[in-house]
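WARN retry 2 of 3 for item q-0093 after timeout on previous attempt; input resubmitted unchanged.
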Amino acid sequence: MLVTEKGQVTIPKHIRVAAGVAPGSGVAFSLAGSNIAITPLATGVKGNRRAKLRAAAAKVRSSLSPEFRQLGAQEIMDFLRGDNAAVKRGRR
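OK item q-0093 returned
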C-alpha cells in the first residue's frame, strides 16, 4: 500500500468492516516505536445518524396535516399502501 503525497492511505475494506469504520467515522492515530495504530473513535456516528434521522422525521411530521400527526408509523404505512380502513380504526 502506498502513501499519497498528501499522506493519505486507503484502509482496506475488510479491515474497515471488521473495525466498524464507516464513512464519517472518527479515527485516532498512535505511534508505538515504528508501528502506527489506527483506532476507531466511539464518537457516535450511528448516534449522529440517528439524531439526524429523528430531526428529519420530526420535520416531516410537523409538515403533516393534524389528523396525520397523531398516527403511528404502522398507520401511516397502512395509509400509504391504501389500507384506509386500518387507519380509520386507529390501529397502532
